[in-house]
Q: What sequence folds into this?
C-alpha cells in the first residue's frame, strides 16, 4: 500500500485515513475482528515519515532533538459491517542527545522503518526525555484505544482498560526514569 497516497493536509485525519485504508484492504469473516493502525510523527504541523536514507534520518533526529512533537496513531477496528475508529495523540519531548549519538543510532540501522526515525523503546539511544499520554501509542499500537474499540463493537476483552492504562503509565515511567 502506498501510504503517501492517503495523506491529507490535517495529520490526525491522515493517520485515520491510512488506518481505514489498511482496514478496508481485508474484509473480516463472521466472528473475526480486523484491526489496523497507522502512526505519524508530527513536528510543527509537518508529518515526518520513515526516513529513506541516513541523511533523512539525521535531519529528522536533529529537528526533533530537545523539542516536543506529537505522535498520532489512527486505529480502526472492524467486524463485518461495523467499524470503530479513533486517533490517539501523545505529546513527546526528546532529550538533547548529541550528534555522535545520532550517528551511532544511524550506524546500527535503527531509524529506517520508524516514523520520525526513532523508537521510544530503544534501550541504547533512549531518545525521549518524557511523554504525555499513551506510551504504547509512541511504540505504535495504543492498546487502550484498541480495547475501547473492541468494547464499542461488543467484543469482550481483558486488555488494558480505559486510558491511561497500566501499560501507558508503566511505559511513561520507563521513559521518565531513563532520562
A:
Amino acid at each position: 500500500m502506498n501510504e503517501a497516497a492517503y495523506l491529507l493536509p490535517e495529520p490526525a485525519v491522515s493517520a485515520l485515513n491510512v488506518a481505514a485504508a489498511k482496514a478496508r484492504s481485508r474484509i473480516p469473516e463472521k466472528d473475526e475482528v480486523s484491526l489496523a493502525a497507522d502512526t505519524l510523527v508530527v513536528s510543527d504541523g509537518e508529518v515526518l515519515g520513515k526516513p529513506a536514507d541516513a541523511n533523512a534520518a539525521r535531519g529528522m533526529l536533529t529537528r526533533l532533538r530537545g523539542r516536543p512533537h506529537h505522535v498520532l496513531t489512527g486505529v480502526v477496528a472492524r467486524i463485518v459491517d461495523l467499524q470503530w475508529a479513533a486517533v490517539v495523540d501523545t505529546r513527546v519531548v526528546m532529550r538533547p542527545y548529541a550528534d555522535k549519538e545520532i550517528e551511532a543510532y544511524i550506524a546500527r540501522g535503527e531509524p529506517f522503518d520508524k516514523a520520525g526515525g526513532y523508537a521510544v523503546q530503544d534501550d541504547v539511544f533512549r531518545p525521549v526525555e518524557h511523554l504525555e499520554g499513551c506510551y504504547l501509542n509512541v511504540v505504535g499500537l495504543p492498546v487502550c484505544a484498541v480495547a475501547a474499540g473492541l468494547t464499542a463493537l461488543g467484543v469482550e476483552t481483558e486488555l488494558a482498560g480505559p486510558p491511561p492504562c497500566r501499560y501507558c503509565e508503566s511505559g511513561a515511567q520507563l521513559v521518565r526514569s531513563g532520562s
